[in-house]
Amino acid sequence: MAWCFVLSFFCLLCGLVTSGFYPVVKDQLETQTKWTRIDSGAYAGTTAFSFICAAFYMVFFVCLVVFQGGIMKQTGLYDVRQDEKRKMEMSMVQAGNLGSPLAPGTASHTI
Questions:
Q1: Spatial separation of the C-alpha atoms in residues 69 and 42, rounded to whole Å
Q2: Phi, psi for 100 (deg, rounded to 5)
Q3: Overall average pLDDT of the 85-92 stretch
Q4: CA 102 centroid distance within chain
Q5: Is the N or C terminus of the chain more exposed, i.e. has fewer CB atoms within 10 Å?
Q6: What is the rounded distance in angstroms from the CA atom of residue 18 to the CA atom of residue 55?
Q7: CA 104/CA 44 separation, integer angstroms
Q8: Where are the domains of the chain?
Q9: Could you say which residues form the signal peptide (predicted)?
Q10: What HEC string does the chain produce?
Q11: pLDDT tens digits, residue range 1-32?
C-alpha cells in the first residue's frame, strides 16, 4: 500500500519537474538546436504520461485503503484465529471475568 503512494508521489514529482522545463524546451532547444516539434511533442507526452501514472497509482492506493479488509481476507493475510481470539476476549470482558484491558495495570513487570 505504501509502495503505491510512493510511486504516485514520485510520478507526480517527475511530471512537475518535466513540466517546469517545458518553456526551456520550447524557447531554447527548438530554436538553438536540432530539436524538432516531434521531440517537443514526445517531451510533452512524457510529462502527460507521468501525470496519468501518478493519478492511477493514487487511485490504486485509495482502493487499497478502502478495501483493505477484503483484500487481506482474499490474499490470506487475514488471520481468522485472531478475530476469534478478540471476540472471546471481549465476551469475557463483558461478562466481568476480566478487568478492563484499557485500565492501568497493577501487575509488576519482572523482565
A1: 41
A2: -70, 135
A3: 77
A4: 31
A5: C
A6: 16
A7: 61
A8: 2-93
A9: 1-19
A10: CHHHHHHHHHHHHHHHHHHHCHHHHHHHHHHHCCCCHHHHHHHHHHHHHHHHHHHHHHHHHHHHHHCHHHHHHHHCCCCHHHHHHHHHHHHHHHHCCCCCCCCCCCCCCCC
A11: 788 888 899 999 999 999 999 888 888 888 88
